[in-house]
């Protein structure tokens, strides 16, 4: 006799799309590395997802639930590089099953009014930078754009930022033979990695603006020691790692080895002012903390009060690089600039009180729409969220604390964004006869309100 069994599993609105293991909560054994260097889970309904981390929440991100997701790109010596979107419980919402090489900088950006997932994929084995492609996926996870640098140059991993005018800022590292005499003290030619950025038309691929560090900033401003400087092994004198464009058409850039944030004229390429470094333009009202940083990343304008001449700049202060240390902890800095008096003052410094995390490479500083601040620790698999006044609210480790600094689990930037997606794939359903259980998932779906399973005979 035919029969039908209807089983409805009502789950939370906007449920995660992969069934998963519960995250850890301040687990000491996790932090000692007793469960492994990179604790992951697999899914019977989607065995292609192989590198989803099980997070150790030092302070639960459920306390920071604003509807947005955690976006990370785990990579490193213990990791199969994977683009990941997690919800605030640590459950994976989407994990890319397509391989792009090493992956960096997963975020949501808008182009022509439409949201896209953007990221870089390619080869980062060059040493501190890479050559690859910037990808743009739509809300169905379909690849809509592949962005390269113009003029046959290779697109670097550090920067892909879509501007208000619908262009994209792209970073580039390119070999150049130049005069090193101002740095080394005698007449000498040598090869450098010149730091370049282009503003690229997304439809034509042509550069509408290009800036080259070596044309405007002398190599003598670099704090990095000259190493090799041969064509086979160029010297990385500048190390550009962030670029932003403001409403005046000028650019704010960060160069790690200049230890400076620099404001560039959008027409001439000239340096308008520099915060930090050898050619610092500002009088420091914070006993040196506003103009002295080391290995910094991810600088942004927070806001401008042009009527009163006040400007706020944010950045991730690594407080170290591969050869130098300024502190035992990386921090986020918010710096107030008075462009009339040319003064700089730290208005906010945020850091984790849970543990002293020093990231000598990579890192991110993000200001959320609600004013909260998200730090990503780059070299170390961790991210923290702070209140507008700097109180730690939420913190997640996807690497044991004991393994910090090892390079085993890294994620260049760790960010938060709202994201709505409707994958074209079908939900996956697997029945495990041994366990007599059904396992279901829908990788990337954000709008699942309920599972309805129907079996008939």
TrEMBL record:
It holds the Pfam family Arylsulfotran_2. InterPro entries: Arylsulfate_ST, ASST-like, Quinoprotein_ADH-like_sf. Keywords: Signal. Residues 1-19 form the signal peptide. Transmembrane segments: none annotated. PANTHER family: ASST-DOMAIN-CONTAINING PROTEIN (PTHR35340:SF5), PQQ ENZYME REPEAT PROTEIN-RELATED (PTHR35340). This is ASST-domain-containing protein. It comes from Cercospora zeae-maydis SCOH1-5.
């Amino acid at each position: 006799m035919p029969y039908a069994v209807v089983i409805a599993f009502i789950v939370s609105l906007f449920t995660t799309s992969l069934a998963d293991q519960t995250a850890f909560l301040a687990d000491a054994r996790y932090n000692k590395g007793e469960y492994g260097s990179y604790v992951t889970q697999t899914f019977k309904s989607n065995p292609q997802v192989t590198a989803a981390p099980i997070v150790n929440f030092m302070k639960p991100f459920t306390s920071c639930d604003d509807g947005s997701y955690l976006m990370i790109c785990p990579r490193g010596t213990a990791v199969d590089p994977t683009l990941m979107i997690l919800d605030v419980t640590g459950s994976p919402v989407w994990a890319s099953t397509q391989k792009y090489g090493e992956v960096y900088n997963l975020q949501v950006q808008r182009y022509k009014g439409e949201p896209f997932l953007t990221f870089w994929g390619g080869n980062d084995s060059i040493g501190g930078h890479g050559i690859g492609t910037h990808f743009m996926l739509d809300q169905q996870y379909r690849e809509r754009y592949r962005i390269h640098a113009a003029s046959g140059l290779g697109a670097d991993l550090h920067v892909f930022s879509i501007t208000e005018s619908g262009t994209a800022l792209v970073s580039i590292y390119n070999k150049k033979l130049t005069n090193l005499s101002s740095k080394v003290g005698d007449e000498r030619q040598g090869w450098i990695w010149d730091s370049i950025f282009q503003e690229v038309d997304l439809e034509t691929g042509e550069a509408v603006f290009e800036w080259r560090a070596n044309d405007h900033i002398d190599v003598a401003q670099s704090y990095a020691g000259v190493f090799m400087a041969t064509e086979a092994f160029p010297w990385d004198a500048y190390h550009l790692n962030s670029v932003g464009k403001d409403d005046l058409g000028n650019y704010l850039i960060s160069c790690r080895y200049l230890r400076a944030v620099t404001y560039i004229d959008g027409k001439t390429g000239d340096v308008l002012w520099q915060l930090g470094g050898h050619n610092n333009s500002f009088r420091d009202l914070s006993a040196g903390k506003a103009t002295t940083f080391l290995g910094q990343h991810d600088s942004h304008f927070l806001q401008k009060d042009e009527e009163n001449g006040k400007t706020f700049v944010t950045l991730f202060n690594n407080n170290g690089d591969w050869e130098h240390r300024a502190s035992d902890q990386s921090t986020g800095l918010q710096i107030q600039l008075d462009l009339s008096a040319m003064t700089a003052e730290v208005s906010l410094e945020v850091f984790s009180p849970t543990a002293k995390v020093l990231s000598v490479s990579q890192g991110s500083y993000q200001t959320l729409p609600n004013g909260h601040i998200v730090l990503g620790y780059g070299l170390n698999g961790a991210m923290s969220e702070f209140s507008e006044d700097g109180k730690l609210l939420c913190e997640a480790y996807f690497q044991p604390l004991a393994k910090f600094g090892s390079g085993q689990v890294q994620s260049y930037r760790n960010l938060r964004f709202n994201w709505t997606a409707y994958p074209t794939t079908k939900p996956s359903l697997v029945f495990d006869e041994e366990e007599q259980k059904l396992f279901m998932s829908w990788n990337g779906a954000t709008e699942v309100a309920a599972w309805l399973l129907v079996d008939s005979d």
